Amino acid sequence: MLNEKIQKALNEQLNLEVSSSYEYLAMSAFFETLNFSGFAAWMRVQSTEEYAHALKFYDFILQTNGKVELTQINTPSLHYKTPKDAFEATYKHEQKVTASIHNLVGLAIDSKDYATNNFLQWFVNEQVEEEANALKILERIKMIEDSKGGLLYLDKELGKRGRTA
Ligand code: FEO
Questions:
Q1: What pLDDT is stored for residue 145 in this prediction?
Q2: If I label 38, which of 3, 8, 47, 53 is the partner at 20 to 30 A Cα–Cα?
């Protein structure tokens, strides 16, 4: 059974994961408008993954006899005009998600809620990967700067994620 404070925080995280899904879907659309279909495919897969994260919280809340409270999803708010902007925003967003997960872990430990703490460890690991992926792409974009050929090459590389997902 979840205590009220943890239940509220888990529902907030559920909302943040759905919001992340929405943010990355908006980013996918942004890349489509630039005709970078590989970047767009990568973001679309990312959006789907975020929704799957949200469902993990949804299932865990129900499994622990908690109450799922779905709240308003904000309009995507990340700002970007170039692929570099978009991945800078992605990296920052993932850092925000990591901080939120760590905060939840702290709450679970303080409450001696070992089941929630155990559940959250998957997300602690996942966030290491999420940040690393976003940073790697950002660094590669910075490396090629404004080279159109470089961006097109990276676009092709990232598109592979869309085809294997
Ligand atoms: Fe579910 Fe990218 O955090």
A1: 83
A2: 53
